[in-house]
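User: I'm putting together a teaching handout on how multi-component assemblies are represented. Below are the sequence lines for each component of a complex, exactly as they appear in our records. Could you produce the 3D structure of the whole assembly as structure tokens, so the students can see both representations side by side? Please keep the chain order the same as the input.
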Amino acid sequence: MFVRGTGGVAELIRFNDVRFSYAAADRLALDRINLEINDGEFILIAGDSGSGKSTLLRCLNGLVPHFYGGKFGGQITVNGIDTKTAAVAELSPHVGLVFQDSGAQLVTETVEEEIAFGPRNLGLGGVEVAERVERAMREMSLAGLTGRRTATLSGGEKQKVVIASVLSLEPKILALDEPLAELDPVSAAHLVKLLQDLNKRLGLTVIVAEHRLDLLLPAADRVVEIKQGRLSPSPNVGANLQVGATESRSKDRLLQKDKSQNQPFVLDVSDLSVAYDGRQVLDGAAFSVRAGEIVALMGNNGSGKTTLFRTITGFIKPFAGQVVINGRDTVGMSAADILRDAGYVPQRPSALLFAETVGEELNTGVDVQANARHGRLPHRSGTDHLAMTYSDSMRSSDSLMKEFDLDSHVNDYPRDLSLGEQQRVALAAVLSGQPSLLLLDEPTHGLDHGAKVRLAQILRAQAAAGAAVVLATHDSDMTALVADRVLHLEGGSMHSDI
Amino acid sequence: MASVLAAASLIKNPLYQIILLGAVGVVFTASPRPADQSRVWGSFLKLGLAFILISLIYNVLISHTGETILLKIPQWAPIIGGNVTAEAAVFGAVFGLTFLLGMLGFAAFNLQVRAVELVRLLPRAWRSAATVISVTFSFIPATGAAAAEIQEAQLIRGLDYGGGVAGRVKRAGAVLTPLVVTGLEKAITTAESMESRAYGNPAAASVRLEREPWTAGNLVLLGTALAAVSAIVAASVTGWASLGYQPYPVLTAPAFNPLIGFVLCLYAVPAVWPN
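Assistant: Of course. Below is the structure of the complete assembly, with chains in the same order as your input.
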């Protein structure tokens, strides 16, 4: 179906001394990039968050510089076209670009409409469009989603539809930005296999930017590492894998386990059954967590991890079972009441960020906490009692800032930070309430290894201070770093690891 | 949809409005709709009801004509001082009902007939409109979902706006800013995604596109919609049946013409003849 290269090694993409800085940024996002990619190659672009991976990908179809503006120097040719002079719409038939947040990329109402969007824009006739939609759906095994509305798809399904929607352009190059971030190990392995297949069978040039390297390394012909906007001369990808992490923790963990054995239960879930959206998601789920314990709750996409958290926090009402937090059965209590004891960081931490600056964000959290303690009120009015509350809150937001390594960002706009930093701001804001139970949903989504280690340290400190921590994750790296105990959620109920 | 909107805007007679509301309601409940969307339409409905209430209160306070006096606000109060009349209340409510009808009609027929499909039945010159409409429509559920997410996030952060009307208003305000911010973020991604998929490619304009064939279902739907709207327009122009309703100066029962009632029931056809 897709046009194959003429055979042999043909150069498809060339970056010639490319420099780029975003408008109003003083730092170069790309700094003298020289790179050639041949027709039919499978390239892995490795690099931490904020290193320039996404910017590099956006150069391929001219979004950088045409969409973003900024200062651009050097030259990029893609399939013989100079990206500086061609419009994005002219380059896009050659480059299928898939961004990070697959949900946000869906632009139409239904699956077929979505996949037909590209070919229609190419001005193809109805028959040709229908054929392309059918082929792309077949390539991505999407037959089951025929006629579905895009708004009702799961995360993994959305991603597949997004990939199909660029495959229908029948491009020579398929470029994906952190495609594994949202996927559990099984789906991730499946996607990598699929990309390999598209690369081998159809001769598609595949370029993947990722920091989850373990699965992609065997598939890639070549790894290119980018650091602070520059290509590293000799990619040292092994360092990112950190195989040793598992062992170094195990001893600590045994000690921790002994210690927490005598602690009281903070969370005790029993026989919990939940139906959501007409489907039974949890079926007699049961587990408990003691103070000072960190439990990793593992399970594939769609196994019900998020539903479990949303039930514990009172957003979803179960039809059977009990959730006991600090000795109180919370089923039937309002979410607002439950959340006074339980801190919850949902999947997308940016959802929790409202304020103009990081400092303000944390102060809000601290003020809210002061409110809860002293009844209603403290809008910084004059009595001695309130003045004291206020200075207390300032102090503790300062200490939070230090503890979470956010000092340098006090005046930054929270949503502009990297995902790892956003995660820390959200966590700090939630922790200002000093909850005895902390629930984190996929906290490592979009985090590079360094950021994960930093998060693990923070969670450890919280546990040491007596909090019970539960993280829902499919990241075995993070589980190895931090968990005292692992639970698997499968078919709506729990299976213990140890 | 255009037909139901035209009907909704022409009819000011509360009896007819209630019949039309019933017809639209039947279509709405008969339409298959995903769980996450019904919540969005639910808030649509609430907005409509709130509008009726606001329109009623506003009119009662501002308009002092009418003979059925319910109570008197002292004349020293600027603007609102004067008689509070039942006529003004009815007029306000009827005006609000028009608005609700428009919104609900839009919602129900959007669930039943997809705007994109409708536009695709049209000649090719209208085609680019289909794309724009389709993208716009996918924004409605997305924005609803974002609003729900923000409200949850505020609960998680423990932001308490207090109860009562004041609290609700404050909370709505607090949702608005992040909603605009996330909306803008989503808009940027959407724009990027559209451009990356050849949106604006000059090739699209130069090629002939085939129309989709009309099916029996389409024809029935279009036929009833046209028949209904022409009957209503005819009634309104010739004046053989009054569509309006004038509560002033004294409250009277609205006129009722069974034929108009029947015509309005035609709007329920999509519920029994799904395409």
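A couple of points students might notice: The CA atoms of residues 292 and 463 of chain A lie 4 Å apart. Chain A touches chain B through 65 residues (CB under 8 Å).
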